[in-house]
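Let's do one together. I've listed all components of the complex below, 324 residues spread over two lines.
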Amino acid sequence: MKVEFINPFIESVHKLFTTMLGCEAKRADAKLTRVSDNPRQITALIGLSGTARGTVALSFPMETAVAMANRLLGADNTVSDDSVSDAVGELVNIVAGGAKAMFCTESSVPIDLSLPNVIRGERHTVEFPSDAMWLDVPFTSDLGPFNLRVAFEMNGRKRRDN
Amino acid sequence: MKVEFINPFIESVHKLFTTMLGCEAKRADAKLTRVSDNPRQITALIGLSGTARGTVALSFPMETAVAMANRLLGADNTVSDDSVSDAVGELVNIVAGGAKAMFCTESSVPIDLSLPNVIRGERHTVEFPSDAMWLDVPFTSDLGPFNLRVAFEMNGRKRRDN
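Okay, and this is what the predicted structure of the assembly comes out as:
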């Protein structure tokens, strides 16, 4: 995986914050990791397929997820668990969709998105098989810290999928 | 989601067991659920995209995952954590790939697969946004119990993904 593939996803996170959440997100340096080794309480992920196969994930402490859900929904009070799941699922869908549009325009790499899944659980981890890596980008924001994680392979190696 | 969409995935699980794991898997009745409400310790999932968007997941108690990894790898002893993750990721890839082939042949519903992800954590849950449901099929086998979970939407409703 080339490091520059992360850029459309980072740009998409910044755009999400400035246009829909009304604040800014600041990123730290990206690092390669095989497992989500900074466990969070809630992870929203969405699969990528087509020319590039992989996953985009946003991982949050619960406080960040609730704050982002409240901001996205324009709610003043703590939203329900269902609303938080819907909101973080929609956030990863927006980030992946924005990056998809940039990939299709800039580099002619067509990618398709699956539906978002939301993982909950204290200290859950999300892994890839051992021949793939996450690019992990920590962010801070007025709504709290979170991590963007992206992994994909180009032109799919041969797998036993038929 | 139509219940008959689950059938290629069930058939693919049966084929995986008889051809690669050397034993049989017996299924119980499928039920609709919004959350993986029978928490397992390890879940392998893979995204579906194209005409149909969704997710296929296999959820295991750790004992079943280790037994299936040992059988798949031909190992006598307990395999490493990495090998278990690789094995269950490969299992969901095989199940989804087999079903994909049946969909393409039987109903001209082209679907693409993302890369598998493996979730670990005591009592983790895997959810969809509230407008989607899992079809959950419990299985028993000589290697232990596990669950097949499938959810997808046909012809994607309009989302904010561009």
